[in-house]
From TrEMBL:
<dbReference type="InterPro" id="IPR033116">
    <property type="entry name" value="TRYPSIN_SER"/>
</dbReference>
<dbReference type="Pfam" id="PF00089">
    <property type="entry name" value="Trypsin"/>
</dbReference>
<dbReference type="GO" id="GO:0004252">
    <property type="term" value="F:serine-type endopeptidase activity"/>
</dbReference>
<keyword id="KW-0645">Protease</keyword>
<keyword id="KW-0720">Serine protease</keyword>
<feature type="signal peptide">
    <location>
        <begin position="1"/>
        <end position="22"/>
    </location>
</feature>
<dbReference type="InterPro" id="IPR043504">
    <property type="entry name" value="Peptidase_S1_PA_chymotrypsin"/>
</dbReference>
<dbReference type="InterPro" id="IPR018114">
    <property type="entry name" value="TRYPSIN_HIS"/>
</dbReference>
<keyword id="KW-1015">Disulfide bond</keyword>
<keyword id="KW-0732">Signal</keyword>
<dbReference type="InterPro" id="IPR001314">
    <property type="entry name" value="Peptidase_S1A"/>
</dbReference>
<dbReference type="InterPro" id="IPR001254">
    <property type="entry name" value="Trypsin_dom"/>
</dbReference>
<keyword id="KW-0378">Hydrolase</keyword>
<feature type="domain" description="Peptidase S1">
    <location>
        <begin position="44"/>
        <end position="285"/>
    </location>
</feature>
<dbReference type="InterPro" id="IPR009003">
    <property type="entry name" value="Peptidase_S1_PA"/>
</dbReference>
<protein>
    <submittedName>
        <fullName>Testisin isoform X3</fullName>
    </submittedName>
</protein>
<dbReference type="GO" id="GO:0006508">
    <property type="term" value="P:proteolysis"/>
</dbReference>
Length: 313
């Protein structure tokens, strides 16, 4: 009788430990702890090669193994990107996310690159996305948790971006073309370029000029240089527009669309992340609930019949 009581108490303790462990994992999925940190102090059009670790949240989203779009790591299981990246290919099985690499085409001998490549489990597009330029945002849930290191870290997001409206020192990163008619040359190193946030009134004025008219409104953010030459380009879609404040980096925008690349008076247009903050939070909360791997009945049965020496050990 004593042995069975002891076994029951031990089983209950193990169940509580397992439930607690799963709860901590769930909490980390939603609250990744410190974000926006990087260990490296501070081609995209007009940009330059970056250094490993400067943008540790940068993801290469790969369609059947080849780079297709950019993304950003929000926590161990979630990646932020643009909805238009998945218009033609929305089967998660076809996608992986690569982290911690400078090259979009790492060597086949680079085993670390394959170790830091994660299968996509689910793809969520904003309900407001209708194939146009608004609500161009997507969340990707990974099949397994990302291992953080000094080259792989999450970026922060905010419920509002008002304090960054007039910043001139934000950065956009990606593996896209370096000119409208020129792809990124080998060895396909991640590019970075410093851009300024352009307020909506000015951006609407620029896009009202002849040759192309488009209303900039709602969930769009403009960034670049009125003179051109500093911009995202084809292949950078889904990547982050990031600004720093007091040593912490925040994602302000997602590379969405533009008129050509680096043209005067045609800044890049980004999805405003803060406009979709609640959607991001709700998708993550709704799809990050895990149950313990071992249910209490399955865990209890073998322990109730455990021999006495297991209880005395």
């Amino acid at each position: 009788m004593d042995a069975r009581v002891g076994a029951l108490l031990l089983a209950q303790l193990l169940v509580q430990i397992e439930v607690g462990r799963q709860a901590l994992q769930d909490e980390e999925l939603l609250l990744p702890g410190p974000c926006g940190q990087r260990s490296i102090p501070t081609r995209i059009v007009g940009g330059k090669d970056t250094e490993l670790g400067r943008w540790p949240w940068q993801a290469s989203l790969r369609l059947w193994g080849s780079h297709h779009c950019g993304g950003s790591l929000l926590n161990r299981r979630w990646v932020l990107s643009a909805a238009h990246c998945f218009e033609k290919n929305n089967d998660p099985y076809e996608w992986t996310a690569q982290f911690g690499e400078l090259s979009a085409m790492p060597s086949i001998w680079n085993l670390q690159a394959y170790y830091n490549r994660y299968q996509v489990e689910q793809i969520f597009l904003s309900h407001g996305y209708m194939g146009g330029s608004s609500s161009d945002i997507a969340l990707l849930k990974l099949s397994t948790s990302v291992n953080y290191n000094k080259y792989i870290q999450p970026i922060c997001v905010l419920a509002n971006n008002y304090e960054f409206e007039n910043r001139t020192d934000c950065w956009v990163t990606g593996w896209g073309d370096i000119k409208e008619d020129q792809g990124l040359p080998s060895p396909y190193i991640l590019q970075e370029v410093e851009v300024g946030i352009i307020n909506t009134t000015m951006c609407n004025h620029l896009f009202s000029l002849p040759s192309f008219r488009h209303d900039i409104w709602g969930d769009m953010v403009c960034a670049g240089d009125p003179q051109g030459d500093k911009d995202a380009c084809f292949g950078d879609s889904g990547g982050p527009l990031a600004c720093e404040k007091k040593g912490v980096w925040y994602q302000i925008g997602i590379v969405s669309w533009g008129v050509g690349c680096g043209r005067p008076n045609r800044p890049g247009v980004y999805t405003n992340v803060s406009s979709h903050y609640e959607w991001i939070r709700m998708v993550m909360v709704k799809n990050s609930i895990h149950r313990p791997d071992l249910s209490p009945p399955l865990l209890l049965l073998p322990l109730l019949w455990a021999p006495p020496f297991l209880l005395l050990a």
